[in-house]
Amino acid sequence: MLAKRIIPCLDIDRGRVVKGTNFVSLKDAGDPVEQAQRYDSEGADELVFLDITASSDARPIVLQMVRDVADSVFIPFTVGGGIRKIEDIREILLAGADKVSLNTAALNQPELITESATRFGSQCIVVAIDAKRREEPPLRWEVYTHGGRRPTGIDALDWAESAERLGAGELLVTSMDADGTKNGYDTELLAEIASRVKIPVIASGGAGSLEHLYEALNVGKASAVLAASIFHFGQFTIGQAKEYLSSRGIIVR
Description:
By secondary structure, the chain is α/β, with parallel strands linked by helices. It has a single domain (5-247), classed as Alpha-Beta Barrel (TIM Barrel). It has helices at 32-42, 63-72, 86-94, 104-108, 111-120, 156-166, 187-196, 210-218, 229-232, 238-247, and strands at 5-13, 16-21, 24-30, 47-51, 77-80, 99-102, 125-133, 141-145, 150-155, 170-175, 201-204, 224-227. Strand 10, helix 7 and strand 11 form a beta-alpha-beta unit. Helix 1 (32-42) packs parallel to helix 2 (63-72), helix 6 runs parallel beside helix 7 (187-196) and helix 8 crosses helix 10 (238-247). The longest helix has 11 residues, at 32-42. The model has no long low-confidence stretch (mean pLDDT 91).
């Protein structure tokens, strides 16, 4: 069995790490390079670095920040936000990122997944899915784009399968309902997607305790857990998270 990964998430807005609730009410959480260095030294397995307003502001990602983070850490890291074309992906990888995360662009241009996976390898193409529960049928979870601002009418489970088929190497699944609430991940959403795809699923949105990490990995069948609030504000360290998961029988690195 592959070891499960612990991945802190750096949401970036105007050059600062921020954390919100349900994708709004953003709160400052520090300097991205300093945070990245801290997580690297704490033993994080990877980092995810998302420029959360690049798509909605229709601007490119800040490449210098990617370079600065790349120069300061020794663990793999993923960059997303504002990616629109294959050249954007090339520039981000050249700036030092190990993977790119596609969300809005992947939905607008599904062929970008295939083109980038063919050119750079599936292992560095992550498709991010921001999903929100629907009360009325036929959709159970609807995909949103532009940093959670625009509903698409697309079913999250169907899109997960399509993204894998198109060439994605991983899926980053965020529950918009759970995001920032600290009430736990949407394990039902995670388990549904994990049962439909063979590529790794990264759980995102809702971590408030170490038990929640365990639930996402055990009940939700995720391959990795992404978290922000519980690490950014000193509630837990990466080491404490790994120690707890190991004590519950989860294999960690």
